[in-house]
Every structure is written in structure tokens, then in C-alpha cells.
Amino acid sequence: MADLHRLAAGLFVIGFPGTAPDDDVKRLIDDGVAGVILFKRNVGTPEQVRGLVQALKRHAGRPLLASVDQEGGRVARLRGGPFTSLPSMRELGKNRDAALMERVGRLLAFETRACGFDWDFAPVMDVDTNPANPVIGDRALHRDAAEVARLGVALAQGLEAGGVASCAKHFPGHGDTVKDSHLDLPSLPHAMERLLAVELVPFAAYAKAGLASVMTAHVIFEALEKGVPATLSKPAMTGLLRERLGFEGVIVSDDLEMKAVADHFAIERAVVDGLDAGVDCFLVCHHAQVQRAAIDALVAAVKSGRLEQAQLERAHARVAALTRRFARGPEAGSAALGSAEHLRLAEGLDVGTFVGRDPTEG
Questions:
Q1: Pick from 120, 140, 137: nearest CA to 70
Q2: 306-355 pLDDT, tens per residue?
């Protein structure tokens, strides 16, 4: 079943420690994982980051998605030196200027592409409805759902025009929670009418625009499925996102090692239930043994009949399509930080080094 194992591995984007590829990440790339994600722990100078991404892609010897969380504000893995220190999305959103947000998207694409990245997990499409939210807050573009939709789609279109896949997060909406899903499992009691009027408006616009990917929220939505986070919920992923909103791109999970999932669901159950729910690609961002257990769980689920191999194949086809469109080879990343084009894109946006706690760096 070697082909089945490679098929399953191709549904994962993995994290790893350190500023150089270790043996674990190399072996998992050899096994066929779709991509890698870099965090603060992996990042030094622009030259080091570019060299790390190149080394990973060279080792793969095939298209490999290099991904990063580069939102701006307090969630930015690439900081200092030539990188633009963007203000929070809340501050930028106050301008209500879609052309500005499209330029921000192109700037993010330029800077991430210069380091060899293919996929940026941005923009946040959550609506800023709860001032007490510990994890979203000023990462959201606006309090008004229609403005989030308009501005977020513009940013995503700028990213993709710049050659980097965008990702709308966190579906179906993390903006009104009072718990941080990195630490706990939030729950929202809102009726479907409220979700349709607020939380889902930006994601509906993103789906209609035909953009690349949507990231799931590890949040229970009682109106969709009681007691089950959206990441593992078929009514959320298939019924709502695929069928009702008509989204055709890649559905990628938030990190399955976050406590919202890891403290309540074994990794084996999380990936099997997630794929069955409609998730195409899984982020497992920290531990090689967890990553291997997750891949093995999908293989075992097919062998036992719990999942159909066709489910893996459909998910794999979507991830492969995104890879064909956006993944570039190891010698890509020639965009020059500090060039005239870079400075033009950054003009008027740099506010100095942004100080704040990054809630997504586990």
C-alpha cells in the first residue's frame, strides 16, 4: 500500500524545529507531504529563510508548497530589516479602501515570494464583533461584515495577483469567541440566521471570488453540529462551505496540535473525522511523531473501510491543483527586497517595528 501511504501524506503541511532541515522533515518530505510551514522558530535573516526554503524544495525534487502566516500586525513571521512592518488589519481597515488592501496583498506576496514562499495563510476574514476576543481582535479588518468581505477579498486578490496563494481564515468565523483556540475549545451559540448575516458574509464573498483556500476554525458552532468543532464537522465543511457557499478551492485545517483539538480528540480521530467532514489538507505544525501518526491514521482508515480511497483522491486532487498553480522551484524567489518595486508597494505603509504578542506562535 505504498501508493496509499503517499496519497495520505500528500494531504499534510508540516512544521519542524530549527533553522535548517532536520532528518524528520526530510523523511516526511520523502514520504510525500504536500508542504511545509515556517514559524518564528525557523526564521532568521531573509537570506537564511530563502536558503532554508530552497534546501527543502531541493530535497523534495518535486513541487513542494512552502507556507507561512504573514498577515501583518502582530502575526508576521518575517520581521525587521527589509520587511515592511504593517499596522494591524484593524487599523488598515479603518480606511475602507479596497485599492489599499489590494496593494497590501501585493506587498505581502512580494515579500513572501522573495523568500520562496508559495502560500500565505492570510487574510483573516473573521468579523471584529467582540472586543474581548483574545486571539482575533485587531487581526480582523472591520466590525462590519460587508467591509471585511470587500477588503479581505481585495487583499486576497492582491496576494494571488502577486503569485502567492491566499487563505481566508477561520471558517465559519472566530471573531466572536472569548476563548483562544490555541489553548481551549471555544463554542458559539449563534443561530444560523446570525451566522448568515455576520460570520459567513466574508467567506461567501471569498468563495464567489474563486480564491485559493479556506482555513477551518477549531470552534464549535451549535447551529451546525453540537459538540463538534467546525474542523471535524461535515455540516460545516461540506454542507455549508462546499454546498451552500459553493467554495471549490482547498479547505485546510488550522493546526491540529492546537489545544482546541489536541486536548479533546486524538490525532488519529481528528484527521479521519476531518477528511470525512470535507477537509482537504491538514496542518500539523510541531512534532514528527504526531505527523506520522496522522498519516498512518488515514491509511488505516482506508484499509478498514472507515474512509473510501476516493475521499483521499478528491482531497489530493485539490491540493495538487493548488500546488501546480502556485508552487515554484527552489531557485525561485528572485524578487529583490529593497528594490524600486518593493519600495513602491511599501510606500506609506511601514509604521516601524510592531510590538505585540503573536497569539498564533505555539
A1: 120
A2: 999 999 999 999 999 999 999 998 876 557 898 999 999 999 888 765 55
Q: Which of 254, 255, 280, 358 is catalytic?
A: 254
308: Cα within 13 Å, side-chain hemisphere:
5
Give Cβ neighbours of residue 347 (< 8 Å, ≥ 6 apart): none
- Pure H helices in the chain: 2-9, 23-31, 46-60, 89-93, 98-114, 145-161, 192-197, 200-208, 234, 259-262, 267-277, 288-304, 309-326, 340-346
pLDDT-wise least confident of 8-22, 211-225, 255-269, 324-338: 324-338
30 is catalytic: no
pTM: 0.94
How many angstroms from the chain centroid is the CA of residue 19? 21
C-alpha span between 182 and 75 (Å, rounded): 14
Sheet holding 35-38, edge to edge: 119-120, 65-68, 35-38, 12-14, 282-284
List domains and CATH numbers for the chain.
Answer: 2-333 (3.20.20.300)
Which of 170, 174, 182, 316 is labelled catalytic?
182
> Comparing 33-37, 41-45, 51-55, 172-176, which segment has the lowest mean pLDDT?
172-176
pLDDT in tens, 57-76: 999 999 999 999 999 998 99
Q: How many residues does the chain have?
A: 362
Q: Is 182 a catalytic residue?
A: yes
Contact (CB, 8 A) for 105 and 67 = no
d(CA 225, CA 100): 38
Would you report the helix, strand and coil content of the chain in percent, each value rounded to 5?
Answer: 45, 10, 45
Backbone dihedral angles phi then psi of residue 71, each to the nearest 5 degrees:
-90, -30
Contacts of 195 (CB under 8 A, 6+ apart): 172, 173, 221, 223
| Number of neighbours of residue 95 by Cβ within 10 angstroms | 11
Q: Give CA angle at 319 (280, 222), nearest 5°.
A: 25
